[in-house]
Amino acid sequence: MRTIKELHPELNNSEPGNLILNCAYLACDVYNANHDKKYGYERIYESNPVSSGYFGACYIPTLNNPNHAIIAHRGTVPDFSSIIADISVAEEKSFKQLEDAVFFAENFASSIKAIFGDIPIYNTGHSLGGILSDAATKNSNQNISITFENPGSKNILKKFGYIPNATKSFRITQSHINIINTCNEQLAPISRLIHKPVIYNIPKGMLKAPFDIAINPFMNGFYLVQNTLSQHTIPEMIEHMKAKGVGVSEISPFGFNEGYSAYLDTQKNQLYWHNYFDYAFKQKEYGTEMPWEQFLNSGLAAVERSRSQIQIMEEEKSYIESPRSLGFFNVEKNKDEVIESQKSQCLIA
Fold first, then answer.
1. What is the 3-state composition of the chain as percent helix, strand, coil, each rounded to the nearest 5?
2. How many helices (H) and strands (E) in the chain?
């Protein structure tokens, strides 16, 4: 497991040593009305209430001469404006909070540079706040966005009129695969927290049987709810990062089906699925008399069967939507016209 400094050596000299972890603290703190100073930062400025529901806060280290500043953008909260924003994210549409995040970040950057000089300014956010953080770098070539459980902002920002040309400006830390962090395409490779604990609390009746692995992500209640709840929240991510670091770099899958297919990969997620079936094996309501090894192997085989079915459906979908296949179907649709055309060409030849 690589540490933060090992994964991002460029942060070692010019930036604070635990910058990514500090950003995680503040991405969590911005959800709270009352700032917690235990993180070593002072909240010096907050955004004014706006109709879109956007909220951001600005922080500087509690030092005599602050050497950097961080703008934290709040993620989803239980209100109507957040629901509207989340729907827009799922549909990869632009939304009003993006404009408010850019406006707030620009105003703060001007103020902070006037007071403290040309110090680095970082943006951060969790979940929806991660997309807002990415957007906030729009009009600055210096700002870096450090986000957590980012749903994926690439196409959303494109529709917002922002196409970043420097992927190194984006640091994305994700938990284990879930329905949120594989929603859309990311701007850059991610850092995946590996072996982050999962709460295997499968409610009785949620699964018809331990080997009933749905091929549709929206039909798998455990994947949608329990898995996402145990992986997506920022406080649990912070505790894992403090103990284990930020994980390994990879290209994230994106799209509901592709993300779910990656989730069902029993080779890559071996420990996850071993623990999943260990939990199921110990639940008496499943009523199985299988020995443990047979139970585990049967379960893993069921997961892989579902994954194979998803991949087959995706391949068929890609073929149907490809230009070649569309041409083929057009030919079939106008078969008589094509035959007549070929006859004419033969006569002319």
1. 50, 10, 40
2. 14, 8
Instruction: Report yes or no: 42 and 280 within 8 Å, Cβ to Cβ.
Output: no
Are 59 and 44 in contact, with CB atoms under 8 Å apart?
yes
If one looks up domain 4-321 in CATH, what number appears?
3.40.50
Averaged pLDDT for residues 255-259: 94
| Separation of CA 167 from chain center | 16
**How much is the pLDDT for 211?**
84
Residue 319 predicted with pLDDT over 70:
no
On the question of pLDDT at 287 being above 60, the answer is no
pLDDT at 349: 33
Q: Under DSSP, is residue 139 helix (H, G, I), strand (E, B) or coil?
A: coil
User: What does DSSP assign to residue 94?
Assistant: -
Q: Residues 6 or more apart from 261 whose CB is under 8 A from it?
A: 253, 307, 310, 311, 314
pTM confidence score: 0.84
Give the integer Cα–Cα distance in Å for 44 and 58.
6
Strands 41-46 and 56-61: antiparallel
From residue 208, how far is each of 211, 212, 298 by CA, in Å? 8, 6, 15
Domain boundaries, the chain: 4-321
Pairing state between β 170-174 and 190-192: parallel
Q: Which residue has the higher pLDDT, 143 or 181?
A: 181
Give the DSSP letter string of 195-236: T--------TTSSSSTT---SSGGG-HIIIIIIHHHHH-HHH
Whether the predicted pLDDT of 39 surpasses 80: yes
Q: Which whole number is the average pLDDT over 85-103?
A: 93
Q: What is the DSSP letter of 161?
A: T
Contact between 215 and 162 (Cβ < 8 Å)? no
